[in-house]
From TrEMBL:
<dbReference type="InterPro" id="IPR007657">
    <property type="entry name" value="Glycosyltransferase_61"/>
</dbReference>
<keyword id="KW-0472">Membrane</keyword>
<protein>
    <recommendedName>
        <fullName>Glycosyltransferase 61 catalytic domain-containing protein</fullName>
    </recommendedName>
</protein>
<feature type="domain" description="Glycosyltransferase 61 catalytic">
    <location>
        <begin position="284"/>
        <end position="369"/>
    </location>
</feature>
<keyword id="KW-0812">Transmembrane</keyword>
<keyword id="KW-0808">Transferase</keyword>
<dbReference type="GO" id="GO:0016763">
    <property type="term" value="F:pentosyltransferase activity"/>
</dbReference>
<dbReference type="InterPro" id="IPR049625">
    <property type="entry name" value="Glyco_transf_61_cat"/>
</dbReference>
<keyword id="KW-1133">Transmembrane helix</keyword>
<dbReference type="Pfam" id="PF04577">
    <property type="entry name" value="Glyco_transf_61"/>
</dbReference>
<comment type="pathway">
    <text>Glycan metabolism.</text>
</comment>
<feature type="transmembrane region" description="Helical">
    <location>
        <begin position="20"/>
        <end position="44"/>
    </location>
</feature>
<dbReference type="GO" id="GO:0000139">
    <property type="term" value="C:Golgi membrane"/>
</dbReference>
<keyword id="KW-0328">Glycosyltransferase</keyword>
<keyword id="KW-0325">Glycoprotein</keyword>
Length: 465
C-alpha cells in the first residue's frame, strides 16, 4: 500500500504536487468551516471570514448598496452635534458646510446616496455659549439650527467660499463681569481655536462693541481673518469645516486630557505674549536682603466685598517688605494697560471676586493671596482662583476672615445665624438667592492686619523658592 502511494505521488510533477496540496488544504479548510458554522450558528460571520481570507474580495462584496449602508452607519454613529456636556453643546462638521446667518442656519450638505431623512436626525437647536442650563445667561443668546441638507434639496448658494475652518460662538451671558468674560469666553475660545494657528475665522453672535474693543488684541492673536458679526451678516458663507459653540472644561481652567495636552500654564504664556508683557518670572528673593521689595498689588474693589481699610493694609504690606500698589481697573482703562500694571507685580491680594481674575497677567512664580469672606465659601473660592493659580505655576495662599473682620457683624450682630451659621441661610426658602445677596453683595471686609501679617511673611518666603 505504501509503495502504491509513493508511485502515485511520483507520477506528478513538483508544480502539480504543490497544486494538489493547496487543493487538499483548501478543501479540508472549507469542510472544517462548514461544520463549525453548522454546529455553532453565527459564531463566525461570513463577512468577517471573507475579510480575513481576501481583503479584495471583501471590498467587492461591500460595493454598491452595502457601501451606502456602511456610510450611513458611520454618520449615525457620530452625529454632527454633541449635546452630552453639562455646560456646552458643540457641533463639529467637515465637508460642504453652508452658513446662512440671516436664518440662523448651518447646513451640512450631503449627497442623496449618503443621506436620507428617515435615517439621520434632521436638526439640532444650539445656543453657542457655554452656560447651558442657565436660563438668565442664555435668554439673550441666538438659537441656531444645525442639520443635514441633501443635494436633492435646494441648498443656499455660496456667496463666499472659504478655505479655512470657522468657529461660531456668542458673547452673551454674563459679559461685563471679568471673571465670566475670561472663564466663559476667553479660555473656551482659546481651547477651541489655538490649534488652528490663526487659520480659522470667527463668526460672533451677540457681538458686543465694547467686548470687541476690550479683547481685539487677543482675538487677532487667534485668528488672522476678518471677524464676522453673525447677526448682521447677509452672506451665505461656505466652509470645509465649521464648529458651532466653544469648548468649556471648568471655571477658569483647562483639562489637559481634553485639550491635547494644552494647560493653563500655556494659556498664561499666550496671554503674556498677546499683550507683550515683559516679565515671564516673578522676582526671586535671595538671602536675607531686606532692601529687595517685590511689588504687591492690592485689588481695591469699589463696590461689593471692599476692603474698608485699604490704607492700613497698604502700610502693613510696606512694613512686611513689599512695595504696595493699590489699584482696580478703571471703567475706560484699556485691558492692555492694566495687564502691564499687573505683570509688573510679584503678588496680588484681593477679596474673592472678579478682580482676582487679573492673576492671568502675573508672571510665573508670583504669589496670589485670596481673602475669603464669611459665608462658607472656602471650597469654591479655592476652585475659582486657587486651582488656576497653581495650574499656571504660581504660588497660592488663602486667608479666611474672622467674624469681626466682616461688615455683617455691624448689620446683624455677632450672635445672628447669618454671622455664625451661613448654612442656615441656604436652608431657608429661596436660600441660595438670599445667601448670594447677603454674602456676595452686602458684605465688606476690614482686614485684621495684625492677624494677616503672617500671610505676608509667608508670601515673601514663597518668593524665595
Amino acid at each position: 500500500m505504501m509503495g502504491t502511494q509513493a508511485k502515485f505521488f511520483r507520477s506528478f510533477s513538483r508544480v502539480e504536487l504543490q497544486t494538489l496540496s493547496f487543493v487538499i488544504f483548501t478543501g479540508f479548510f472549507l469542510v472544517s468551516v462548514t461544520l463549525l458554522v453548522l454546529s455553532a450558528g453565527h459564531f463566525v460571520p461570513f463577512p468577517s471570514l471573507g475579510s480575513w481570507l481576501s481583503p479584495r474580495a471583501s471590498l467587492l462584496t461591500r460595493a454598491g448598496e452595502n457601501d451606502t449602508n456602511n456610510q450611513n452607519v458611520d454618520l449615525r454613529s457620530k452625529p454632527l452635534c454633541d449635546t452630552s456636556d453639562r455646560r456646552a453643546d458643540i457641533c463639529d462638521m467637515e465637508g460642504d458646510i453652508r452658513i446662512q446667518a440671516s436664518s440662523s442656519s448651518i447646513f451640512y450638505v450631503t449627497s442623496s446616496i449618503r443621506n436620507s431623512a428617515t435615517e439621520l436626525q434632521g436638526t439640532w437647536k444650539i445656543k453657542p455659549h457655554p452656560r447651558k442650563g442657565d436660563r438668565p445667561a442664555m435668554s439673550g443668546v441666538t438659537e441656531m439650527s444645525v442639520g443635514y441638507l441633501s443635494t436633492k434639496q435646494e441648498a443656499p448658494k455660496c456667496d463666499i467660499n472659504s478655505t479655512v475652518p470657522a468657529i461660531i460662538f456668542a458673547t452673551g451671558g454674563y459679559m461685563g463681569n471679568f471673571f465670566h468674560e475670561v472663564s466663559d469666553s476667553i479660555i473656551p475660545i482659546y481651547i477651541s481655536s489655538h490649534k488652528f494657528d490663526g487659520e480659522v475665522q470667527f463668526l460672533i453672535s451677540e457681538m458686543l462693541p465694547w467686548w470687541m474693543t476690550k479683547y481685539e488684541l487677543l482675538l487677532k492673536k487667534l485668528t488672522h481673518h476678518e471677524i464676522i458679526n453673525f447677526n448682521k451678516d447677509a452672506m451665505v458663507r461656505c466652509y470645509p469645516r465649521v464648529i458651532v459653540g466653544i469648548t468649556f472644561h471648568k471655571d477658569m481652567g483647562i483639562d489637559p486630557a481634553r485639550s491635547g495636552g494644552v494647560t493653563m500654564f500655556d494659556f498664561g504664556r499666550f496671554i503674556r505674549s498677546t499683550y507683550s508683557l515683559e516679565r515671564e518670572t516673578a522676582t526671586k528673593l535671595q538671602g536675607a536682603n531686606p532692601e529687595k521689595r517685590p511689588r504687591l498689588l492690592i485689588i481695591a474693589r469699589s463696590r461689593t466685598r471692599r476692603f474698608t481699610n485699604v490704607d492700613e493694609i497698604a502700610r502693613m504690606v510696606g512694613w512686611q517688605g513689599f512695595e504696595p500698589v493699590v489699584a482696580e481697573m478703571k471703567k475706560n482703562q484699556s485691558l492692555a494697560e492694566f495687564a502691564r500694571l499687573v505683570n509688573s507685580c510679584d503678588a496680588i491680594l484681593g477679596v474673592h471676586g472678579a478682580g482676582l481674575t487679573n492673576l492671568i497677567f502675573l508672571p510665573t512664580n508670583a504669589v496670589v493671596i485670596q481673602v475669603v469672606p464669611l459665608g462658607g465659601m472656602d471650597n469654591f473660592c479655592y476652585a475659582d482662583y486657587g486651582v488656576p493659580t497653581l495650574e499656571m505655576k504660581m504660588k497660592y495662599l488663602q486667608y479666611g476672615i474672622g467674624v469681626m473682620e466682616s461688615s455683617l457683624v455691624d448689620r446683624y450682630g455677632i450672635t445672628d445665624p447669618v454671622v455664625i451659621n451661613p448654612k442656615s441661610v441656604q436652608a431657608q426658602k429661596e436660600g441660595w438667592r438670599n445667601w448670594t445677596l447677603i454674602y456676595f453683595f452686602n458684605q465688606d471686609v476690614k482686614l485684621d492686619v495684625a492677624r494677616f501679617s503672617s500671610f505676608l511673611t509667608h508670601a515673601r518666603e514663597l518668593l524665595r523658592e
